[in-house]
Design brief:
The protein is of the alpha+beta class and about 325 residues long. Helix content is about 65%, strand content about 10%. The protein has seven helices and five strands.
Amino acid sequence: MKNKSIALFAIGAMFSLYSCAPVYKCGEEIPAGGIQGSNRLLDVVKERDELCKTVETKDLESAYLIRNNQKLSVENDSLATRNREIVGEYKELEGNFNNLKEKNSKLQEEHLNLSERFSGAITNNLNQGHLFDERIKEKERRLTEKEDALFAREKKINELETEIARQDSIAKRLNQLLREALLGFDAEDLSIEIKNGKVYVSMSDKLMFQSGKADVQTKGKDALKALAGVLKKNKEFKILVEGHTDNVPIKTSTYKDNWDLSVARATSMVRLLQETHGISAERLTASGRGEYDPKASNSTAAGKAKNRRTEIILSPDLSEVMEYLGK
């Protein structure tokens, strides 16, 4: 631009030196009649006008460029500001991303821990469940065993009750048979009763023996004969012959005391039952209680008379009952 101004100035100077006619200035309108002058002048004017147009064009371009540059500068400032904002936003997003990444890492670690704990809990629960099932099965097995044992026990009890009822029935029938067989004997000398499933035949010493003796007298033998007739037909009963005395002391050359006398009387009756009446010895037992199992008080004569007795105790054969108990 500076060189072009110098050129225009030089051309203007030339116009002043070589032309007497006035020449219009750059930017002014061309006179209607044109200008007068030499060809050289006209060429210079023409060149000047072209230069003026060029300068004008360049000035317009320069102004455009200045405006555009200003606009670009504003836009650049705006872009710089926006870039700074974007950089800030980026840094903020980067920070947020790093925080989220850290949180994600922690969540993954927590998830892994929870997974391990959950897996462990499931395994533990499965183990506990299996153990619980095993305990339930064991309890069910024990309950079944107890139920079976209870059923077996109830069955055994029913069988025992049936057997005991049968034995009671047999004892009652035997009692009736003995009463019928011994009907002719005085009730004061001979009595029959059932106690605890056993039949007790109590014979007084007046019926069976002379005082202080152990040999069975005639009336007593008759009673034993009647008794043996029933017992031989009812072989399911065991026979215990038990001698008793009062508390009056005795001491002879044969019997040292009431123990000896009671045992001797029981033995004498057992021998008669076995040897005379054919009762199996395996069914017989002889024992003596002396004065130590009285039926009445020994303070009166009547009481002493009741105590001087021999009892034949008939017990049902409980082998089947014992067999049930042993099962």
